[in-house]
Design brief:
Layout: H1 14-26, H2 30-33, H3 41-57, H4 71-82, H5 87-95, H6 98-102, H7 106-113, H8 115-125, H9 136-152, H10 155-169, H11 179-196, H12 200-214, H13 216-232, H14 234-250, E1 256-261, H15 264-274, E2 285-291, H16 294-307, E3 309-310, E4 316-317, E5 330-335, E6 341-348, H17 349-357, H18 361-364, H19 379-391, H20 395-405, E7 410-414, E8 420-424, H21 429-436, H22 438-442, E9 444-449, E10 452-454, E11 466-470, H23 487-519, H24 533-543, H25 548-556, H26 562-575, H27 582-589, E12 601-603, E13 611-613, E14 625-630, E15 634-639, H28 643-651, E16 656-661, E17 669-678, H29 683-693, E18 697-703, E19 712-721, H30 724-735, E20 740-747, E21 750-752
Parallel strand pairs: 2-6, 12-16, 13-15
Antiparallel strand pairs: 1-2, 3-5, 4-5, 5-6, 7-8, 9-10, 9-11, 14-15, 14-16, 17-19, 17-20, 18-19, 20-21
Helix pairs in contact: 3-5, 4-5, 4-10, 5-8, 5-10, 7-8, 8-10, 9-19, 9-20, 10-12, 11-12, 12-13, 13-15, 14-16, 19-20, 19-23, 20-23, 21-23, 23-25, 23-26, 24-26, 29-30
């Protein structure tokens, strides 16, 4: 006879009963109802229906803590309700995991809750697969989708940030193996986005929670240190508060004062970044003063500066010049009792709302204020995401552009008409030009800062007055990509260069194909008309190209060999009765360039991306040159004696074509020169003067490492000259300098005389 043991959980213990009751309360709609008093009856009904649908969808699912899964969507919706988001957003918050985890389709949501809610949930669903351990391209694509969904409807990111905040608060229930990845992701992506959109309260919380789980020991030590300091300085801070309140009462100024303390993460970052001990961080404590009007804020500043001495250089007026994310406050740091530095922030109630909630203040604050249109907060940045996407279809490139804009430590500069513009720290004149307008950026030729001519790579500083000088013939330079700071400028420059490269490569491809066709005995390319359309269609099927333009671009970039395409085209034309001209064939193939497979191309230096001048030998007009059609690189011009070019020709001769200089080159060309000099005072100046006298520009100079007792040394220059005759004039000038022992041109790793 077997005995049946009673289940261990049959007689529930009081703790179990309490936990079950707490779970039931957290999973009920009542946990959310009290926060929804601002909704109208229709909105409340929609949110209730969304709760019931989500509760049913997640039935039986549990979180890592053992709580019913529905507690998570309720917590996310509760955070959104704190921001006073509308019924559609709250419904989407409750349903944000339904499509991902419960097999519910977008169509189901459209039928039950409408297209707006379904679009929000769909946008959020695409964000759930963010993994740092996936391939870089997949990660970049995920972030691109997230940011574009956010740009179209900012409620997407607000719900996502609420979701991430609750996940971070409950991360203690997750396996520790996930802590590092999720915390890093939060610090690198979500906290900066929250900051960029002005959600400072969320920004600080996400940083603090990520720091707590990423560096638990350091967080614990710092927490204890701050707690001790708080006890030691409690009387001091109370004294400061009393003295401030007394002074404001005498000045008949109404205020609401509250103490504020640096977060542990910001203290840690300051200690780590400036190599300080905890005792050296003096501005841990501060006060926030909320005043009725903007005028009262400035009056309050005067009251405080009469009460305590201000610390020089520690005053910031973010009311007159708001931060990029819309933040407005007056900041000043004062020397309080016992020499303690105390920071004060002064702002109005409306500014406080925006400072804490950023874009969410659009829903929170409905009253009209003359100085703050909260609905526009972050809109410029969101619009810039769409602009970058229009020009950057590659996800990795898009993410590279956006990462730059997530950390905008701003500087404020002025246009000549005194318009204030906020730029990320490190931004240059070119960034400024593109911020004004993309056409201004594209046509930038020169610039003045504070009335003085400056290089385009000049970094801007607070208060600079920037004037951009444009020209109709100017165009973006690839070198700008080396110093621009903003994603907008970078994407605009790359887009322009790609477009120009396509046009130039197409023109070069057409020229190469026409010349290769002449070598096959056909005078010219067939026209694009109804008569020849069948021939072009057959040729495109042969090459696998979608359009004639794509085929010509591929030839110009060296992805296809013109002679092979020309042979196929000749055979197609022969089928229609057009026979090769034997005389033309022999003249093209066996006149000046017997050793190359195609006709010659004329270069004059005006080409941009389609033609490159090899840096190994730096060809200049007057040199005998050959062109190499690299795989996807376009045409690369080498000098005939160049060792690199000769090796390529030996290995890949069919890709070489004859190239010759135009009779009138359009620009100067760079060439490498080595000047051996005897050591002495002022030698470099004399050599530079000799080069300048010959009207050549020095673009780079490099000196060999000094060796004690060495009598001679090599000076290496890259100079800009018109042609070989101009180079020879430079060499003659150099050889006349008494200290110069030898001057020679450097080509392809080998050195030869420039005569």
């Amino acid at each position: 006879m077997s005995s049946v043991k009673p289940r261990s959980d049959a007689p529930q213990q009081p703790a179990s009963i309490k936990k079950a009751a707490a779970n039931a309360a957290a999973a009920s709609f009542a946990a959310l109802t009290e926060k929804l008093s601002y909704l109208n009856p229709e909105g409340l009904d929609q949110v209730r229906r969304a709760y019931r649908y989500a509760d049913e969808a997640h039935l039986g699912q549990l979180r890592n803590s053992g709580e019913p899964y529905i507690t998570h969507p309720i917590a996310v919706a509760a955070q959104c309700a704190e921001w006073k988001l509308d019924a559609q957003a709250l419904s989407a918050a409750l349903l944000h995991d339904a499509m991902e985890d419960c097999g519910i389709t977008k169509t189901d949501l459209i039928e039950r809750f409408g297209i707006q809610v379904a679009e929000l949930v769909d946008g959020l669903t695409k964000l759930e697969k963010l993994e740092f351990d996936t391939r870089e391209e997949n990660q970049a694509e995920s972030f691109r989708k997230m940011l574009l969904a956010m740009a179209r409807d900012v409620r997407v990111i607000l719900i996502k940030l609420a979701d991430r905040s609750h996940n971070m608060r409950t991360m203690g229930d997750m396996p520790r193996t996930k802590w590092k990845r999720i915390s890093n992701e939060t610090l690198e992506i979500y906290a900066p986005i929250a900051h960029r959109l002005g959600l400072n309260q969320t920004y600080r919380e996400l940083q603090e929670l990520a720091f707590q789980h990423l560096r638990p020991w350091r967080h614990k030590v710092l927490s204890k240190a701050v707690q001790k300091a708080r006890h030691r300085r409690r009387d001091l801070m109370q004294r400061v508060q009393q003295e401030v309140e007394t002074s404001f009462a005498k000045a008949a100024l109404k205020l609401r004062i509250s103490g504020r303390e640096k977060t542990l993460y910001s203290i840690y970052k300051k200690m780590d970044g400036k190599n300080l001990s905890f005792a050296q961080v003096t501005d841990i404590y501060g006060f926030r003063l909320i005043l009725p009007t903007v005028t009262d804020c400035y009056t309050a500043l005067g009251v405080l500066h009469q009460l305590y001495k201000p610390v020089p250089g520690k005053f910031k007026d973010h009311i007159a010049i708001a931060k990029l994310n819309g933040y407005q406050s007056l900041h000043t740091t004062l020397v309080g009792p016992s020499g303690l530095n105390v920071e004060f922030q002064m702002r109005t109630e409306a500014m406080h709302l925006v400072a804490e909630s950023g874009v969410a203040a659009h829903w929170l604050y409905k009253a009209k204020t003359p100085n703050q249109d909260s609905s526009q907060l972050g809109n410029k940045w969101l619009q810039s995401l769409l602009d970058i996407q229009d020009e950057t279809r590659d996800a990795t490139e898009f993410w590279d552009h956006v990462k730059v804009d997530l950390f905008p430590d701003a500087v404020y500069v002025f246009t000549p008409k005194s318009r204030i513009m906020a730029m990320p720290r490190g931004a240059t004149v070119v960034d400024f030009a593109y911020a004004v307008h993309s056409d201004v950026g594209d046509r930038t030729m020169a610039a003045k800062v504070n009335g003085e001519q400056v290089p385009l790579r000049t970094e801007l500083r607070n208060g600079d007055v920037v004037e951009v000088i444009t020209s109709t013939v100017a165009a973006p330079n690839p070198a700008w990509l080396g110093f621009v700071r903003t994603g907008r400028a970078r994407s605009k420059i790359r887009h322009h260069l790609k477009t120009m490269a396509q046009v130039e490569s197409q023109e070069l491809g057409q020229k190469l194909l026409a010349q290769a066709l002449r070598a096959e005995g056909i005078e010219q390319l067939p026209a694009i008309d109804a008569l020849h359309q069948a021939i072009w269609d057959k040729l495109l099927r042969f090459t696998g190209s979608k359009t004639q333009e794509e085929l010509l671009v591929d030839i110009g970039l060296g992805k296809r060999v013109a002679s092979i395409v020309a042979k196929r085209l000749t055979s197609l034309l022969s089928e229609t009765g057009q026979k090769p001209d034997a005389l033309l064939m022999s003249r093209e193939r066996f006149t000046a360039h017997e050793n190359v497979s195609q006709g010659g191309v004329v270069v004059d230096g005006s080409e941009n991306a389609s033609v490159q001048y090899a840096p190994c030998c730096r060809p200049i007009p007057g040199d005998v040159i050959l062109g190499y059609l690299g795989h996807g690189e376009g045409l690369v011009v080498h000098t005939q004696p160049c060792g690199v070019g000769q090796r390529l020709k030996h290995k890949d001769s069919e890709r070489f074509i004859a190239v010759e200089w135009s009779e009138e080159p359009k620009r100067h060309f760079e060439v490498s020169v080595v000047v051996t000099v005897s050591n002495g005072k002022g030698v470099l100046a004399k050599v530079a003067a000799a080069i300048a006298t010959a009207e050549a520009d020095i673009t780079l100079v490099n000196m060999a490492d000094e060796v004690t007792g060495q009598e001679a040394t090599d000076l290496r220059f890259v100079i800009s000259v018109r042609d070989t005759d101009h180079l020879e004039a430079v060499m003659r000038n150099l050889r006349r300098v008494p200290s110069v022992l030898q001057a020679r041109r450097v080509m392809s790793g080998a050195e030869r005389e420039g005569d």
